[in-house]
């Protein structure tokens, strides 16, 4: 999978990173993890031929002591 990251810069959206990594998907548990990172799995909440949404339930981003749900959105562009 190749992921392209974008970020805001001067009121524009600019590409900041391109990463290609191997992954594993278990359709029974709907878990997804990158190669050699099985302990850091994500939950696939949407999967179609063109779109994928996965959720990270491992981080407490806001520091309130409760693990937050962070969603990542992917779209096939070719």
Characterise the protein shown here.
It is a single chain. The chain is mostly beta strands. The chain contains no helices and seven strands. The protein has strands spanning 2-9, 12-20, 23-26, 31-34, 42-47, 51-56, 70-75. The chain has a five-stranded antiparallel β-sheet with strand order 3-4-5-6-7, with no helix packed on it. A two-stranded antiparallel sheet has the order 1-2. The chain is globular, with a radius of gyration of 14 Å. The mean pLDDT is 91.
Rg value: 14 Å
Strand runs, count? 7
| Computed structural class | mainly beta
Number of DSSP helical runs: 0
Helix and strand element order: EEEEEEE
**In oligomeric terms, what are we looking at?**
single chain
Enumerate the spans where pLDDT stays under 50 for 5 or more consecutive residues. Answer: none
Output the strand order for the largest sheet: 3-4-5-6-7
How many domains make up the 3D coordinates?
Answer: 1
Helix content: under 10%
Residue fraction in strands: over 45%
Task: Report the average pLDDT across residues.
Answer: 91
Which shape, going by the Cα principal axes? globular
Characterize the main sheet: 5 strands, antiparallel
**Ends apart, CA distance between termini:** 12 Å
């Amino acid at each position: 999978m190749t992921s392209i990251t974008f970020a805001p810069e001067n009121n524009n959206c600019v590409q900041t990173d391109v990463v290609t990594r191997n992954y594993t998907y278990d359709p029974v548990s709907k878990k997804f993890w990158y190669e050699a990172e099985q302990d850091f799995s994500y939950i696939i909440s949407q999967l179609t031929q063109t779109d994928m949404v996965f959720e990270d339930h491992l981080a407490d981003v806001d520091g309130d002591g409760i693990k937050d749900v962070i969603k990542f959105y992917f779209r096939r562009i070719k």
